[in-house]
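Please predict the structure of the following assembly.
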Amino acid sequence: MVSPFEVLDVDEDDDDETVERAYRERVKRAHPDQGGSVEEFQLVRQAYRELSDRDGNGTGSDDAEHLADVDLTEDADAHTPASTRVEFLDYEAVVDYGWSLDDDELFRKASHADLDSDSHGHLLVHPDESLLEAAERSGFAWPFSCRGGACANCAVYLADGKLSQPTNHIMPDDLAERGFRLSCNGYPLTDELSVVFNVKQRPELDDLILPPGPFTRR
Ligand code: FES
């Protein structure tokens, strides 16, 4: 099994500053948006977390909180945050209330509606989690099927913030430009996100949906 020192290409006696510098370089190359894979990206982040905590007194966790500002694109807002606070809204509520996805007041309207906690609320995405994984860890049953970028069952609408979009996915560019993303392989690039989940019932996603199978929850 590869050690975290090997993953980040540092020595055991390297100081925290050297480790952090190595991490910042390594995580850029490993990011799914930059040609890496989700597995590699998670491995690098896990290695950094382990080395940040290696003294066992918890001080490394604070360092980990500060490592987030790794620029991955030309966009100054995009980085790999330590964690991301997500406000979510179920598309079924959007339909029920006759709201529109591109309404700037959508989430304000949702917060004033009497929606249950599965339909509207907040969750936290940890550094090594996709948006879907974070929703599941938080106890929510968001829709999915393949978990690998090959369908749109897990699609969300990104109302605010940035979510990575790996290169090997099925979402057409025009829909991505309109804000549609895949939650199964989307990793937050901003400290906060606002997403509408369960948008797979949108007509423009019809051709991308896989038929219900054993892994589709809703
Ligand atoms: S579940 Fe199929 S692309 Fe996400």
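The two ends are 38 Å apart (CA to CA). The first helix runs from residue 4 to 8.
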